[in-house]
Design a protein that fits this description.
By secondary structure, the protein is mostly helical. Helices cover about 85% and strands about 0% of the residues. It has one domain. The chain has a two-stranded antiparallel sheet with strand order 1-2.
Length: about 325
């Protein structure tokens, strides 16, 4: 009940602040920061209880902004910055703060039938701004935001009884918009792509072939998202491969396979955009990256496609 009261209080305070000033980001930053500062001082919230408070506060922020028809992306950005200021954490604790808050804003967006990608985009932008404010590594911050957002997205999609393919598609859509958010705030798309891939691996908690499929799809989404905002697709693709390698090592996966999946996914997506983009991306991901020799699986994929075509032709002839 107390938790519900806190959420209602946060929501109403944000609504009043927005109506008074019209600035969504500042209204959310100040409300979230103040709420968390008082909550921590009053209860000494730690670990699990603090994660819950962060998530609930983020959800309430989204609900409040939605109530006045405001931009959920701005609300998500403000929630992350406010959470970092309110908890006054640094290093590992700040990373967990970003992760929990990012998950909260995505869940909040789902609860008000908002766009999950917009919420994730705002969370990533808030993580970048907040990281610079407190001196946190931007790759770590981006990874945490992506991880929290993708974990929440996965839980939401699975809750609808949809297939694993739906989870990958939804995650790719979220990633695509998140990359655009990085470019819009002048962030390094290479570092951002690296952080996002690491975050996706941590967030989805997949292993084996499922993880490789996710890496490939995410790398493709990174390239497409970067292209849509006229960013450097080569830098983004290489960052995605670096993220796949780093994430694979953290999760005890085969780094060579992870790198190959990321590179192949990036090149495939680039090819769908245009031959010039495909060449740029292929050049960026070919060779040795972060100590790992990257092998593209294009030829293997072409063989599979040719086999499928041959089978279809054979069936038609039999008919």
């Amino acid at each position: 009940m107390a938790q519900k009261s806190m959420m209602e209080s946060v929501k109403q305070e944000i609504v009043s602040a927005i109506k008074g000033t019209g600035d969504i980001v500042d209204a959310v930053v100040d409300t979230v920061s103040g709420t968390l500062t008082n909550t921590i001082k009053g209860s000494g919230a730690v670990a699990t209880s603090l994660v819950r408070v962060l998530s609930e506060t983020a959800r309430a922020s989204i609900q409040g902004v939605a109530q006045v028809g405001g931009d959920l992306g701005a609300a998500a950005k403000g929630a992350i910055i406010g959470a970092l200021r309110g908890t006054n954490e640094t290093s590992a604790e700040a990373v967990e703060t970003i992760r929990a808050t990012a998950g909260g804003v995505v869940k909040g967006a789902s609860e008000v039938a908002g766009n999950l990608g917009t919420a994730a985009k705002g969370a990533v932008q808030g993580a970048i701004s907040g990281a610079k404010e407190i001196g946190l590594d931007v790759v770590q911050a981006t990874s945490a935001a992506a991880s929290g957002a993708l974990t929440a997205t996965s839980e939401i999609i699975k809750g609808t009884s949809k297939t694993g393919a739906s989870v990958i598609q939804a995650s790719s859509d979220v990633v695509r918009v998140a990359v655009q958010g990085i470019a819009e705030v002048g962030g390094d798309v290479g570092s951002g792509a690296k952080g996002i891939i690491i975050g996706v691996l941590k967030g989805t908690k997949q292993t084996g072939s499922e993880a490789l499929e996710t890496i490939s799809a995410t790398a493709g989404a990174v390239v497409k998202g970067t292209s849509e905002v006229a960013g450097d697709v080569g830098v983004a693709a290489k960052g995605a491969v670096e993220g796949a390698i780093a994430g694979a090592k953290e999760l005890s996966m085969d780094a060579t396979k992870a790198a190959s999946a990321a590179a192949t996914g990036a090149v495939k997506a680039a090819g769908e955009i245009g031959s010039g983009v495909a060449k740029q991306v292929r050049n960026a991901v070919t060779g040795t990256i972060a100590g790992v020799k990257v092998v593209l699986k294009e030829k293997e994929n072409k063989k599979k496609i040719n086999k499928k075509i041959a089978k279809r032709v054979k069936r038609k002839k039999m008919k």
